[in-house]
Backbone:
């Protein structure tokens, strides 16, 4: 039954699916692999032994309701989403922060893969001329004939000519490479230059449940295009000292795009990444982020682990590369939280 020893509790996936109280055990090592068939369940950590709970039921129920997550707020339960009978129209999410190296590309790949695991149809858009998203999914950007650039700049170019299937069932990619950097310059002279991506994505909306745009690290015209196309923005923030620097400029930009170009746009959430619960520093930064953004901060926090750089080399999401890792579990929880937020509206 319960062994509430370490920091991470797991239980068997099958037991969870059957609704039975699963086998729960603890891992003390942060990056430890979970055995096959088991997955990280942050809820299990707080679930009292049923026999024990029966002896103090009201109190246990209260504790369960009021359990506190890493952001210092009560942690809600994010249900496992049910299957969909039909797909679309897509919610478009821009993964955006003008700072580089904060986890935009990593979050795009792994949130996308986790949503696809839950049966959502997902399209990832590589909107950074560096092509890191494409590389992270095993695509060599130098070998591509057609990319997002062609979709943006060539009238009559159909999206399915550019689309690539990824190794994750239900997840497709609009790849990109250095060609896209020319678009930034060429778009300047176009009519309605800010809504070029929005127009290009429109025919794809019925085919997907989520379209996630991996933005480049700048607030230039490409990023404004992504924000104009999007319904919601996710801002990954690295749990480091200067995390909040520049975020005011980003929220101002989001505000301007909402006022002038896209009234539907909303800041869905701030995602804390590269969090290390063992350091006071990480915890302090996270506390400051919550102070500044309150309910906009996702309850889900992505821990720092070498598993993520490894997945880039492997060219696949962590959900398949290390399916039982804590990192994979974190992105699955994020997917459930994002879905819960969308349904709450
Ligand atoms: N949670 C994490 N823990 C450790 N390393 C991470 C984590 N998330 C991302 N990384 C690594 O940090 C680097 C930058 O991440 P990336 O997602 O490319 O950021 P961005 O797209 O914002 O520039 C990459 O090498 C990536 O593998
Ligand atoms: Mg990137």
Residues:
């Amino acid at each position: 039954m319960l062994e509430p020893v370490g920091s991470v509790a797991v239980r068997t996936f099958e037991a969870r699916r059957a609704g039975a109280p699963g086998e729960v055990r603890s891992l003390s090592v942060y990056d430890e692999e979970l055995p096959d068939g088991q997955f990280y369940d942050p809820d299990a950590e707080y679930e009292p032994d049923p026999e024990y709970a029966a002896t103090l039921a009201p109190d246990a129920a209260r504790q369960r309701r009021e359990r506190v997550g890493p952001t210092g707020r009560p942690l809600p339960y994010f249900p496992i989403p049910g299957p969909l009978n039909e797909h679309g129209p897509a919610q478009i999410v821009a993964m955006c922060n003008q700072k580089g190296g904060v986890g935009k590309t990593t979050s795009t790949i792994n949130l996308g893969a986790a949503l696809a695991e839950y049966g959502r149809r997902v399209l990832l858009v590589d909107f950074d001329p560096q092509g890191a998203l494409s590389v992270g999914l095993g695509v060599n950007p130098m070998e591509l004939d057609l990319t997002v650039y062609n979709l943006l700049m060539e009238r009559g170019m159909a999206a399915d000519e550019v689309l690539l299937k990824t190794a994750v069932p239900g997840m497709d990619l609009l790849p990109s490479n250095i060609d896209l950097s020319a678009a930034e310059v060429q778009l300047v002279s176009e009519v309605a230059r800010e809504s070029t991506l929005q127009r290009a994505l429109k025919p794809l909306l019925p085919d997907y449940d989520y379209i996630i745009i991996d933005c480049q690290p700048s607030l230039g015209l490409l990023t404004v295009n992504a924000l104009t196309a999007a319904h919601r923005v996710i801002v990954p923030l690295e749990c480091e000292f200067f995390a909040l620097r520049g975020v005011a400029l980003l929220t101002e930009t989001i505000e301007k795009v909402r006022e002038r170009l896209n009234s539907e746009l909303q800041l869905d959430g701030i995602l804390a990444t590269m969090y290390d619960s063992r350091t006071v520093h990480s915890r302090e930064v996270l506390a400051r982020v919550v102070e500044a953004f309150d309910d906009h901060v996702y309850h889900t926090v992505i821990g720092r682990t070498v598993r993520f750089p490894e997945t880039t080399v492997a060219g696949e999401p962590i959900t398949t590369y290390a399916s039982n890792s804590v990192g994979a579990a974190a992105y699955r929880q994020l997917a459930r939280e994002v879905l819960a937020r969308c349904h709450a509206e």
